[in-house]
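Q: Could you fold this chain for me?
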Amino acid sequence: MFVVLIKYTAELDEIDRLMRDHVAFLHECYRAGVFLTSGRRVPRTGGVILARAESREDLDEVLRHDPFVVEGAATYEIVEFKTSLHHPTLAPFADPGTRKVRI
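A: Sure. Below is the predicted structure, expressed as C-alpha coordinates.
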Protein backbone atom coordinates (compact mmCIF):
# COMPACT_ATOMS: atom_id res chain seq x y z
CA MET A 1 0.00 0.00 0.00
CA PHE A 2 1.16 3.54 -0.67
CA VAL A 3 0.48 7.01 0.66
CA VAL A 4 1.04 9.55 -2.10
CA LEU A 5 1.64 13.14 -1.01
CA ILE A 6 1.15 15.67 -3.78
CA LYS A 7 2.88 19.05 -3.46
CA TYR A 8 1.85 21.87 -5.77
CA THR A 9 4.79 23.59 -7.44
CA ALA A 10 2.62 25.95 -9.49
CA GLU A 11 0.27 28.77 -8.48
CA LEU A 12 -3.32 27.80 -7.64
CA ASP A 13 -4.68 29.41 -10.82
CA GLU A 14 -2.55 26.93 -12.83
CA ILE A 15 -3.68 24.06 -10.57
CA ASP A 16 -7.31 25.10 -11.10
CA ARG A 17 -6.75 25.21 -14.88
CA LEU A 18 -5.53 21.60 -14.77
CA MET A 19 -8.05 20.32 -12.22
CA ARG A 20 -10.62 18.91 -14.65
CA ASP A 21 -7.98 16.79 -16.39
CA HIS A 22 -6.48 15.77 -13.03
CA VAL A 23 -9.91 14.62 -11.77
CA ALA A 24 -10.43 12.62 -14.98
CA PHE A 25 -7.05 10.98 -14.30
CA LEU A 26 -8.14 10.19 -10.72
CA HIS A 27 -11.36 8.54 -11.96
CA GLU A 28 -9.34 6.43 -14.40
CA CYS A 29 -7.10 5.26 -11.55
CA TYR A 30 -10.10 4.43 -9.34
CA ARG A 31 -11.63 2.36 -12.14
CA ALA A 32 -8.31 0.51 -12.52
CA GLY A 33 -8.34 -0.30 -8.80
CA VAL A 34 -5.13 1.63 -8.08
CA PHE A 35 -6.53 4.50 -5.98
CA LEU A 36 -8.57 3.86 -2.84
CA THR A 37 -9.20 7.42 -1.63
CA SER A 38 -7.91 10.91 -2.36
CA GLY A 39 -8.40 14.52 -1.38
CA ARG A 40 -6.95 18.00 -0.89
CA ARG A 41 -4.43 18.84 1.78
CA VAL A 42 -5.42 21.48 4.34
CA PRO A 43 -4.26 24.14 3.73
CA ARG A 44 -4.50 23.73 -0.04
CA THR A 45 -0.86 23.02 -0.85
CA GLY A 46 -1.42 19.71 -2.62
CA GLY A 47 -3.25 16.45 -2.12
CA VAL A 48 -3.11 12.97 -0.63
CA ILE A 49 -3.87 9.62 -2.30
CA LEU A 50 -4.08 6.18 -0.73
CA ALA A 51 -3.08 3.73 -3.46
CA ARG A 52 -2.26 0.12 -4.05
CA ALA A 53 -0.04 -1.28 -6.78
CA GLU A 54 2.06 -4.38 -7.37
CA SER A 55 5.25 -2.33 -6.99
CA ARG A 56 6.58 1.18 -6.52
CA GLU A 57 7.66 1.11 -10.17
CA ASP A 58 4.11 0.29 -11.27
CA LEU A 59 2.76 3.18 -9.21
CA ASP A 60 5.41 5.54 -10.59
CA GLU A 61 4.31 4.59 -14.11
CA VAL A 62 0.68 5.40 -13.27
CA LEU A 63 1.51 8.71 -11.59
CA ARG A 64 3.65 9.99 -14.45
CA HIS A 65 0.43 10.37 -16.47
CA ASP A 66 -1.16 12.79 -13.97
CA PRO A 67 -1.73 16.11 -15.77
CA PHE A 68 -0.26 17.90 -12.74
CA VAL A 69 3.01 16.01 -13.32
CA VAL A 70 2.90 16.24 -17.11
CA GLU A 71 2.55 20.04 -16.86
CA GLY A 72 5.16 20.38 -14.09
CA ALA A 73 2.58 21.75 -11.63
CA ALA A 74 3.15 19.22 -8.82
CA THR A 75 5.57 16.69 -7.40
CA TYR A 76 4.93 13.48 -5.50
CA GLU A 77 6.33 11.99 -2.32
CA ILE A 78 5.48 8.30 -2.08
CA VAL A 79 5.50 6.35 1.17
CA GLU A 80 5.21 2.57 0.86
CA PHE A 81 3.99 0.58 3.85
CA LYS A 82 2.78 -2.90 4.73
CA THR A 83 -0.44 -3.15 6.69
CA SER A 84 -0.31 -4.93 10.02
CA LEU A 85 -3.75 -3.97 11.41
CA HIS A 86 -6.78 -2.76 9.52
CA HIS A 87 -10.41 -1.79 9.95
CA PRO A 88 -12.73 -4.61 8.80
CA THR A 89 -14.01 -2.52 5.88
CA LEU A 90 -10.47 -2.33 4.50
CA ALA A 91 -9.94 -6.11 4.53
CA PRO A 92 -9.99 -6.38 0.71
CA PHE A 93 -7.04 -3.97 0.53
CA ALA A 94 -4.92 -5.20 3.45
CA ASP A 95 -1.74 -7.14 2.94
CA PRO A 96 -2.02 -10.91 3.39
CA GLY A 97 -1.62 -12.10 6.96
CA THR A 98 -2.63 -8.85 8.63
CA ARG A 99 -5.19 -8.70 11.38
CA LYS A 100 -8.59 -7.04 11.49
CA VAL A 101 -9.21 -4.81 14.47
CA ARG A 102 -12.24 -5.96 16.43
CA ILE A 103 -14.81 -3.20 16.53
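A (continued): The beta strands are 2-8, 35-40, 46-51, 74-80, 85-86, 99-100.
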